Amino acid sequence: MDEKVRATYAVVLAGGRGERFWPKSRAARPKQLQALTGGRTMIEETLARVEPLAPPPRQWIVTSADLAGAVGSVVGPGPRVIGEPLGRNTAPAIAMAASEIARSDPEAVMLVLPSDHHIRDVPGFRSALGRAAELAERGYLATIGIRPDRPETGYGYVERGEAVGGGCFAVKSFREKPDRETAQGFVASGRFYWNGGIFAWSVPVILDNLRKHMPALHRATMDWQGRGGLAAGPEAFGEYFQPLEGISIDYGVMEKADRVAVVEGDFGWDDLGSWEAAARYYREDGSGNRLSGRALSLDSSNSIVVSDQGLVALLGVEDLIVVRSGNAVLVCRRDRAQDVRRVVEELGRAGEKEFI
Amino acid sequence: MDEKVRATYAVVLAGGRGERFWPKSRAARPKQLQALTGGRTMIEETLARVEPLAPPPRQWIVTSADLAGAVGSVVGPGPRVIGEPLGRNTAPAIAMAASEIARSDPEAVMLVLPSDHHIRDVPGFRSALGRAAELAERGYLATIGIRPDRPETGYGYVERGEAVGGGCFAVKSFREKPDRETAQGFVASGRFYWNGGIFAWSVPVILDNLRKHMPALHRATMDWQGRGGLAAGPEAFGEYFQPLEGISIDYGVMEKADRVAVVEGDFGWDDLGSWEAAARYYREDGSGNRLSGRALSLDSSNSIVVSDQGLVALLGVEDLIVVRSGNAVLVCRRDRAQDVRRVVEELGRAGEKEFI
């Protein structure tokens, strides 16, 4: 462990498609480039949150090549935007970024963050992230565990073990999406957290763990670095990335590594997984409707309305999600919010590119 | 009765607001100026249907002053478009038109037609209208009775009496909107028709009946004609029209007159009273949905979708009406189709002029 504080980099993973937010989220402007809960886009919010730890010159955004231009114009000239030639899940993206940071700053601390989550308590979040960075300086692979407030079956969980100081814990196990009963047990125990995909480690530690647990990925990454890394251009990036397996860092490294620790976080985290989740941030009208944009509701209740332009009028309906955005309108039963991506799939099959 | 055939004029009443067809029907472009069932606007369809009996120079359209320009640009230079300074129901509009026709053609036959009904069997309609015109030449006030195919409680009914020749009947009574049981009796009897608001009479006969049954209206009309009629300009028109009572020709004349006859019509008449009615002309998708424009339906049934531009996607819903037109979207439970005008009223109260 070094005495001096190492430089901290934020690597923001922004390759998602956000299909559950269709028709607002589109292929060319997905969820992370939308302002779903307020004035700024989710990726801008993400960068602003980490800025005290990692200012723009040390903010790296990994997105898909086709989105790099749009991301760049949203985040401005400070952060570095890297366009992946194709999506390969989180482990390859992290290996790529870690190896590239190592070229100029081999001892750096690296934070990894999703680009499309909502966080209510920003000071609380920064405090947790700071503790994770301290764990990283102590040689841990650190993850932030979100204290669960319900037995959610759609998330992975992290089980804490022994205390390791600073209010943090060794990780005893990672658990995939549990069934309802198991999830209830997790919440009741007080020892389980949601895995929110927010990590901290030092560059040498993550590279060493990749070498141990994902040797093929590590070797390909080192070969690519030997040819120059990102500076070698998009063709070399493609040759490196294309053959890689798409594996998550959770599955590929975190679940197998020895020195893994969790920082408890309780800062109003929300992965904004669907319109149902986003609607919690819209105005309520007294009939249980949640409204964003211009809406008129007559004899209607418990519905979610989003209108980017123009007006949406409800008459005599309930339990619906209605979204008018750009050239498309979605009308969805409220308990089908998770299936909105099926609309996108169907449009893809039908070749309706202008609506995707 | 003259030996020679008199010239026939068609007076099309086009002052309606079509509020039940919001958001497609708007104040500046109401139902009659929309193509709700096919390629041409309803008013164009109406004029084309009567053209063999009344060619464009003898087609008169009575609408509101604020719509006269829009109507004129839809129907072209042939027909005469008259803009009423304010709406006063059908009796004043008919008195005005009859007195004005009388200036140049005092013996003319005058057909009166709504501008926004749908008729499937155009030859059948023309045949019925021809027989009504013959009754008019014989001095009758003629109405076309639509053979009912269901006990509709939303229409007025006409009861037939003695045969008067040519397959037509004297009218025994006019009956206002009946309750359900009464309507069932009407349909079962075979002696009742729907009153579709389609009339034929000669100009001297209708003026004589107005003099007898609506003397105040008749006197005001004659005074106005004494000052020059329409040629005297909009100010004189306003002075004439403003004080008139808004009364229907059915109530003001037809129910009181002696020599009234009905022609049986069975030509696929539809007053297209609501989205529910219009949807019968849209494509069916196998799940009971009726679609007009670009629509995608997933796990959805028995819904009506109209999209003027862009796409409407349904997911997991049923029994809805969804209309995307211009700057507004309507989402309405299907059994509330008659209440769509309440949305327009509410928008009016809220001063939301851009959406009305």
List the SSEs and their pairings.
The structure is a homodimer of 356-residue chains.
Chain A: E1 8-14, H1 42-50, E2 59-64, H2 65-75, E3 80-84, H3 90-104, E4 109-114, E5 118-119, H4 122-137, E6 141-146, E7 157-165, E8 168-175, H5 180-189, E9 192-202, H6 203-213, H7 215-226, H8 234-241, H9 249-254, E10 260-265, E11 269-270, H10 275-278, E12 283-284, E13 290-298, E14 304-315, E15 320-325, E16 328-333, H11 340-349
Parallel strand pairs in A: 1-2, 1-4, 2-3, 6-10, 13-14, 14-15
Antiparallel strand pairs in A: 4-9, 5-11, 6-9, 7-8, 7-9, 8-10, 12-13, 15-16
Can you describe this structure?
The structure is a homodimer of 356-residue chains. The first copy, chain A, is an alpha/beta fold and 356 residues long. Chain A folds into 2 domains: 8-270, Spore Coat Polysaccharide Biosynthesis Protein SpsA, Chain A (Alpha-Beta Complex), CATH 3.90.550; 275-355, no CATH class. In chain A, 31% of the residues lie in helices and 29% in strands. Chain A has helices spanning 42-50, 65-75, 90-104, 122-137, 180-189, 203-213, 215-226, 234-241, 249-254, 275-278, 340-349, and strands at residues 8-14, 59-64, 80-84, 109-114, 118-119, 141-146, 157-165, 168-175, 192-202, 260-265, 269-270, 283-284, 290-298, 304-315, 320-325, 328-333. In chain A, the strands form 3 sheets. A 5-stranded mixed barrel of chain A has the order 6-9-7-8-10. The longest helix of chain A has 16 residues, at 122-137. The radius of gyration of chain A is 21 Å and the shape is globular. Chain A starts with 7 loop residues before the first strand and ends in a 7-residue tail after the last helix. The A-B interface holds A 23, 296, 298-299, 307, 309-317, 320, 322, 324, 326-333, 335-336, 339-340, 342-343, 346-347, 350, 352, 355 and B 23, 296, 298-299, 307, 309-317, 320, 322, 324, 326-333, 335-336, 339-340, 342-343, 346-347, 350, 352, 355. β16 of chain A pairs parallel with β14 of chain B, so a sheet runs across the interface.
